[in-house]
Structures
1.
Amino acid sequence: MNRLRIRGTRTRLVLALLLVVAGSLGIVYLVVVTSLQTELVNAKLDQLEADAETVVRAYQNEIGSEQELAETAAVLVQARVVVYSILQDELFIFGDSNTTSSLDVARDPTAQRAIRTRTIERGTVVRSGREFAEVAVPLEDSGVVILLSGSLADPLSSLNLIERRLLIAGVIGLLFAVVVGYGAASFHARRIRRLERAAERIAGGRFDEPVVDTGNDELGDLADAFERMRGRLEKLDRARSEFIANASHELRTPLFSLGGFLELMADEDVDDATRREFVETMREQVDRLAKLATDLLDLSRLDAGRMRVEHEPVDLAEVARVVAAEFSARAERKQHTVEVDVQGAPVSRADELRVLQVVRALLDNALTHTPPGTTVTLRAWADREHAYLEVQDDGPGIAPEHAAHVFDRFYRGDGTIASGSGLGLAIARELVQMMSGEVVLESQPGRTLIRVVLGAAPTSVEAPAPDAAVFT
Ligand SMILES: Nc1ncnc2c1ncn2[C@@H]1O[C@H](COP(=O)(O)OP(=O)(O)OP(=O)(O)O)[C@@H](O)[C@H]1O
Ligand SMILES: [Mg+2]
């Protein structure tokens, strides 16, 4: 079906080219040949008219009979000369330089017109398949019409030559048009088919072969667009496979661990204290699975563009206090100190639940990835345009080689405790970006700071940044 369509395009292209060439030749023929023919015939008629004056003068000088005059004049003017006499508006031949037969000019149309109009008449006639130019001069005093008839074969022969040459050139031109048109169309058809095959390959999920077309035209641009599309789809496809592999792996670890503990607990010999310990560990694994399920759901919503965020005033001081309070028991257990430092009244334009989620992920990291005894500070403040909330800890810091990747999905730093799945920061950053903000990371040994920058709401009250806040 598609092949037929491309062939159709090729035929149409060739036909269009043929039409253009044939049309141009037709116009050249009409303009050159027709106008040249008119000019040649007119030149011959002008010459005959001038000669006719000479013959008329000779007739008026009365040199011999009409027949003698016709023959002598014919030699002089190199044309057939016929002298008619007019009797009751009919023509009778008196003399004719053509001595063989005068029948052919007995009812000559030019001479007949001359007796009707009583003026010099000129025109062309065809006799026995040959064309003649004719001039007829009526001499009313003498009741005579003198006709000069010259063959047009000679002047028109060069024209015939031009016509023949034009015809040959036309045929060559048409053949050339067919060959060139067919070649060019085939070349383009091949390129289109290559692109079609590439599109089908991509549609079939095969992204390995690049789409190449070096042409510097619209087809080349189309191939470039295809290649960009292929590259992007290839990346997306790879990311999707990696995501599935990572997610399955993350799900498998706690599930295997749960399975192991269940088997151990089925063993009758386990004492109560151990059983309680097992149950505690199993609860942790279930919590981990639940958190993972929530994170994966958030990611799928973010990817599908189904995550909706509000842009409403959110009091960042309140957020800092609420999250600090939520984590206070856990911080105490690990002997962490959590401090809240608020300047002014920072109010951001954001989604309260999502901001809480982001700050929870940051504080969770600050407590999880630092040794016991660390101090974690939540700071909030605002300037004219932005409201800031940052979480700083004095833990080991993030090495520069990891810092570039901590916002990637499933990325976990070396030696990090195995409980996390490496999704916290990735989701946090995507959420903040959805709220038109950004997340900034500053880290060095002994200090990690992650700052969330959001747009300030009109009710926000500016205040200088808390002392420890470092701007980059
Ligand atoms: N405050 C911090 N101090 C040191 N390292 C950190 C800190 N915050 C994050 N990291 C490093 O960045 C990595 C990515 O953090 P992220 O929150 O995305 O994942 P996670 O905490 O490992 O897992 P999850 O948050 O999904 O439970 C962590 O594994 C850790 O190595
Ligand atoms: Mg985390």
Note: Residues 361, 365-366, 368-370, 393, 395, 398, 406, 411-413, 416, 420-426, 448 surround adenosine-5'-triphosphate (ligand 1) (CB under 6 Å).
2.
Amino acid sequence: MSSTHFGFKTVDESDKARHVRGVFDSVASKYDVMNDLMSMGLHRVWKRYTVRVADLREGYQVLDIAGGTGDLAMAFAKEVGHTGRVVHTDINEAMLSTGRDRLLDHGVVLPTLVCDAEKLPFPDNHFDVVSVAFGLRNMTHKDAALQEMCRVLKPNGKLLVLEFSKVAKPLEKAYDWYSFNVLPKLGKMVAGDDASYRYLAESIRMHPSQEDLKALMKTCGFGHVDFHNLSAGVVALHVGIKC
Ligand SMILES: C[S@@+](CC[C@H](N)C(=O)[O-])C[C@H]1O[C@@H](n2cnc3c(N)ncnc32)[C@H](O)[C@@H]1O
């Protein structure tokens, strides 16, 4: 049996999804407030930037993977109009239903589907844009997920991967201190769960750097890949074109 990482721990590959589910089952109800607190509101700016780069048009077919509480899906829905469609998906029912309720509270009704990014239940060449925000890091087989994202995109379609990345060297020490000291304490205080926020900090360190993710996306079928560093590389937006 193969092993993989779950944060800094080594776990059996077949067990990682269960560990990840545990994290998101635990944090779902406090996910949005924690996002605002941890990033001091910056995640809203990163997502707004992602929506700009998506450059959606009326009538576009969009798939949001690992969509969680629905920030991107809600913003995309405003751009594609009545003739377009945004499908809001996630592997975790607690995250997805929290998101669906939130979308309904905002008067946004979208198709919502529990599905694993590694086995997408959609036909080939179907979507104009696919997005995954802060989700890829948690997936067991990132290559399989990226290949699936490429498969369901139309030729010339665009994949947007918004994810934590490698921060600029001068900020490393401060960022490490914040991640390993402040985040778990904040998690404990607000969500009653320090372990999930320790996993967050660890999983960020285990995620491929900007250049490594770019190379991986290329091997998974994207002919052109670029990345945009945001907040000195705390986050990067990778844009892959299926060509
Ligand atoms: C940090 S949340 C991001 C939620 C939302 N996209 C956002 O930016 O706020 C990560 C999400 O990835 C989902 N996820 C993890 N593994 C997945 C997989 N294999 N397929 C689909 N979603 C997955 C989790 O359930 C969780 O909702």
Note: The mean pLDDT is 97.
